Amino acid sequence: MSEKITNNNESREKLIECAKREFLEKGFAKASLRKISSDAGLTTGAVYFFFGDKNGLFEGVVGEALAQLNAVLENHFTQDIEADLTAYQQQDGDHDDFSEALVDVIYGHYDEMTILLDRSAGSKYERFVDSIIDKLDSSYIVLAEKYAACVPNKRVNRKMLHWLTHVQINAFVHMMQHEKDKESALHFIKPVMDMLIKAWMEYSLEDDV
C-alpha cells in the first residue's frame, strides 16, 4: 500500500471520488470498499489508512456538505435570535437570503445530499433527517420562547412547533426530489418559505390558559 500512496492528498481525493459514485449507486450498506479502492487504483488498506473505516470514508464524502449546511442553519438562527421580535412584521421575501443560502448548499453538493437523504442507511448518518429536525426544534423553541415573551397571554405550542419543523424539512426534501435545476428550485421554495414563516408566526404560540 505504501508504494501506491505516493501523494497522500491525491490518493485521499481519489478514494472520496470513487466512494461517492459507489455510495450513490449502492448506498452505504451495500457499497464495497474493495470496489472503491480498486476504482481508485489503491488497496483496501488505503481506506483504513486515510479514513479508519467505512463510516470514516462516508464522512469523507459527505462531511463538507454537512458542515456547510450546519453553518447556514446556525448563522440563520443566530440572526433570528438577535432580531427584535417586538418590531418584526413578516413580509414576503424577507427570508429569501436564507432560502438562497440553503439552495446553494444543497445544489452545490447535490450528490452528497442525495447520499445523506437516501443512501445512508447503516451508516452513522442514517438519522440525518432526524438530526436536522432535532437541531431545528432546539433552535425554534428558543426563538418561540422569545416570541412568546413579546405576546401577552401566549405560550409556546411545542407540539405544533414540531409539526411545523417537519413541514419545513419535507418541503426541502420534496424540492430536492422534484426540482433538479437550482433556478427552478428557488422559484418554488421562496414562496413556500414565505408560507412557512406565516404559519410559524400564526401557530407556534397558543393561548396561555
Automatic annotation (TrEMBL):
Residues 9-69 form the HTH tetR-type domain. Keywords: DNA-binding. This is Transcriptional regulator, TetR family. PANTHER family: ACREF/ENVCD OPERON REPRESSOR-RELATED, ACREF_ENVCD OPERON REPRESSOR-RELATED. It comes from the Bacteria. The keyword Ligase does not apply. GO terms for molecular function: DNA binding. Pfam families: TetR_N. Residues 32-51 bind DNA.
